[in-house]
Amino acid sequence: MSSRAATSQAQPPDVDIAKLRADLHLSREKLARVFDVSAKTIERWEARHTLPSTAANRRLVSELREILDLGTVVYGKEGLRQFLLLPLPGNEGTTPLQLVERGRAEEVLAVLASDYEGAGL
Q: Is residue 3 one of the residues assigned to a domain?
């Protein structure tokens, strides 16, 4: 577990980690990999209604919400689930979820924005 998860704070009322995780169809283990923390830490954040206090993890929450919002518009809920788990063309078999885990959420957002604008992959 990295030091990114060392502290947490109460989350704003519009952020619910459990709901975000469920809406993205991610297990605690998968979300833990995204944040580089343990699944137990995700469980605690959900139970205590807290978020990580580090700027990097707060930015990641924001990026995940953007991916959820735009991805749902572009693909629908089930389509977004598939999008996150299927390899992207031209990324050496890397899935969007793996890109997020590697700190490359902006690339996922760029693909979604391109698809939204009708340019395709």
A: no
